[in-house]
Design goal:
alpha/beta, six-stranded parallel β-sheet
């Protein structure tokens, strides 16, 4: 263990040890202020929207605030029913000092209930959650993040009210809904926030293509992307918009490359698409939240089953290996034809 990890772990242990024991919120107690800790990744944050919507229903008169990561700030600030958002980095961050000032400020607001939907915090993130909750933390069971986290997990579980949760394999959405109690009748998707002011009419009718992801398992090489783009079917009156930071080597008159300024702009472009072809979960879940026909390109890792859209019109095309390179351009092209028939 290097010095930074040792220091972080030591501070986390000290903070968790000083945290007050959990005080369960009594049944029927008046709840006026609720703080929800949202998920870190964009795609996963989209999947917490049903749980956030359900909490808004459970506490209709309460002030509902949200802690989120920097990359989710725009999305979080646009979620219906959220009164205020606070950007705080949880995992693997000791500095700056302003972060700890923000945590103390939130702690002083004395929330009646702090609900943690982030189930992969590391050891210092666990300490931050308990600090701002001040004995009022209700949390999903935590999953493995690091050895340091596991060493402190028994102590954390004594300081928080751990709710009974469905396993991730049942589906990520249902796991998030577990924190709101019985999820019967709760919709599996809530439309993603988007920039409704963005005019996409200049693009005409289009299919959106996104073949780059945030992980090795959902990304492709430039050569693979160019090969797929070259073989996509041609449709009368329909063009392709490709989300990419760089130009592509495939010259087609019916293809345009762009990269949205914000995730809210991206969501509006997705919403207005005729269909979506994507490897990236954030794009996929925004698309399915709007009911846009979506071709999901996935590898064969079984844990990804928990992130297959629960609603919408979707075609799932899975690689036979853990590498998307096993998907041929011809196979993808065939499924795009099927997508257009939805």
């Amino acid at each position: 263990m290097n010095f930074k990890k040792l220091l972080t772990h030591s501070i986390a242990r000290w903070l968790i040890g000083r945290a007050p024991d959990a005080v369960p919120c009594p049944a029927g107690a008046k709840v006026e202020r609720v703080l929800v800790v949202g998920y870190d990744a964009i795609g996963d944050f989209i999947l917490t929207l049903p749980a956030i919507a359900r909490l808004r229903e459970i506490y209709p008169a309460a002030r509902l605030e949200l802690v989120c990561s920097q990359r989710n700030q725009l999305l979080a600030a646009s979620v219906a029913g959220i009164d205020e958002c606070h950007v705080i980095t949880l995992n693997d961050t000791l500095w700056p000092a302003s972060m700890w000032c923000k945590l103390r400020e939130l702690r002083q607001r004395q929330y009646d209930l702090v609900i943690n939907l982030f189930d992969e915090p590391d050891d210092i993130a666990m300490a931050k959650l308990l600090l701002l909750a001040n004995g009022r933390l209700q949390s999903l069971p935590l999953r493995f993040k690091s050895d340091g986290q596991q060493k402190l997990l028994p102590l954390f579980n004594k300081k928080a009210c751990i709710v009974s949760s469905r396993p991730v394999r049942d589906h990520f959405v249902y796991r998030m809904l577990s924190v709101a109690g019985d999820a019967a009748g709760v919709p599996a998707t809530v439309p993603s926030p988007c920039n409704e002011q963005l005019d996409t009419s200049a693009y005409g009718r289009y299919l959106l293509v996104n073949l780059t992801g945030s992980q090795v398992g959902n990304s492709m090489t430039e050569a693979q992307i160019d090969g797929i783009l070259a073989q996509l079917p041609t449709y009368q009156g329909i063009s392709y918009l490709v989300f990419s930071r760089q130009s592509v080597a495939c010259p087609r008159q019916d293809m345009r490359v762009l990269f949205p300024d914000t995730i809210l702009d991206a969501a509006k472009i997705i919403k207005d698409a005729r269909g979506v072809i994507s490897t990236d979960t954030s794009i996929i879940h925004i698309s399915s939240s709007f009911g846009v026909p979506t071709l999901v390109l996935m590898n064969n890792e079984r844990w990804r089953d928990a992130f297959i859209p629960l609603a919408g019109r979707n075609i799932i095309l899975r690689s036979t290996t853990d590498n998307l390179a096993a998907l041929s351009p011809a196979e993808i092209s065939h499924q795009v034809d099927a997508l257009m028939a939805l």
